[in-house]
């Protein structure tokens, strides 16, 4: 037979669609609390990101220091604040891979690797490291929030501006622990599949 004729499975793999009559892989069975924890983890960077984007667009955040005072925005520094916000949310959204099929098997459209199973350590090690680092950074930040080098510094927000910023950054304290819970559930689920 000619090399141009391929099996339905090969055509499906090439197109990214399941072959006719082939069983469609079901989504992994994830307990509702783990799904909720994953979505909550993905959303924890949103308030602080929106706060930074508001500053980037010219909102008066209460800062009077030379870098974050309202006269500087919008401006060149706006790209930094918006980029940081988008990066944090993109990293947060990766948590959803721990509860969806694309976190277990690369989609078929991924060049060269599409359709391959993701090794458990390839997901668990970065996720565990991320959970530990985010927890360390946010807890440390919380304990030092009012120090003279941070929110206690001259030119930092006061009054309502202080409380708005604090409320926007507070959800980040949950990010690391939520990610750790979801990562542990992913690990247990994938280990049972072997």
UniProtKB/TrEMBL annotation:
<keyword id="KW-0812">Transmembrane</keyword>
<feature type="transmembrane region" description="Helical">
    <location>
        <begin position="163"/>
        <end position="187"/>
    </location>
</feature>
<keyword id="KW-1133">Transmembrane helix</keyword>
<feature type="region of interest" description="Disordered">
    <location>
        <begin position="1"/>
        <end position="25"/>
    </location>
</feature>
<feature type="transmembrane region" description="Helical">
    <location>
        <begin position="120"/>
        <end position="143"/>
    </location>
</feature>
<feature type="compositionally biased region" description="Low complexity">
    <location>
        <begin position="13"/>
        <end position="24"/>
    </location>
</feature>
<protein>
    <recommendedName>
        <fullName>Integral membrane protein</fullName>
    </recommendedName>
</protein>
<keyword id="KW-0472">Membrane</keyword>
């Amino acid at each position: 037979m000619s090399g141009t004729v391929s099996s339905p499975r090969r055509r499906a793999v090439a197109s990214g669609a399941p072959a006719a009559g082939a069983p469609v892989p079901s989504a992994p069975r994830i307990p509702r609390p783990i799904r909720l924890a994953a979505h909550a983890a993905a959303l924890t960077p949103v308030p602080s990101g929106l706060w930074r984007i508001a500053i980037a667009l010219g909102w008066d955040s209460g800062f009077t220091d030379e870098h974050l005072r309202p006269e500087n925005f919008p401006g060149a520094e706006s790209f930094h604040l918006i980029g940081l916000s988008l990066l944090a949310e993109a990293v947060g959204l990766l948590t959803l891979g721990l509860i969806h099929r694309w976190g277990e098997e690369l989609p078929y459209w991924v060049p060269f690797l599409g359709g391959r199973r993701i090794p458990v350590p390839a997901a668990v090690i970065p996720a565990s490291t991320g959970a530990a680092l985010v927890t360390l950074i946010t807890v440390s930040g919380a304990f030092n929030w009012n120090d003279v080098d941070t929110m206690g510094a001259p030119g930092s927000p006061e009054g309502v501006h202080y409380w708005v910023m604090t409320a926007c950054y507070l959800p980040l304290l949950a990010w690391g622990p939520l990610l750790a819970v979801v990562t542990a559930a992913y690990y247990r689920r994938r280990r049972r599949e072997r």
